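Ticket closed. Logging final result for Aminoacyl-tRNA synthetase class II (G/ P/ S/T) domain-containing protein.
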Amino acid sequence: MMIFFIYLKDDAHIFCRESQVKDEVRKALDFIDYVYQIFGFTYELKLSTRPENKLGDDETWDRAESALKEALDEFGKPWQLNEGDGAFYGPKIDISVSDALSRKFQCATLQGLESPADGRRSSESSYRIGDNGTSGGTN
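Final structure:
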């Protein structure tokens, strides 16, 4: 008899300055693409923007959404705008893979871009880019 134990951590956090957000998101997209290519996955990218009930001011959201748009544009793969489906604390990039029956499943998510909420924003403020790995949900 064999017993297997597994510990799975499908979450990562990147802390960076606002000026680094675009490049860090681009690096995360490159990594996701690298892994998905190994397994032969095809995928779709969606930028989910500010929902109606959100935290923070519009200026902060504008900068966050702009950084994600620039990263997606530089990444060079087609992407869609998914207006109003961002997390309440920040925009996100949803990545859906297709199975053999062409069903789509949300797999990786660059989950939100959290900025300092205390009003003391500056170029020295840190931002968190979260990746929740596999969510198991479907689109």
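The two ends are 39 Å apart (CA to CA). No further action required.
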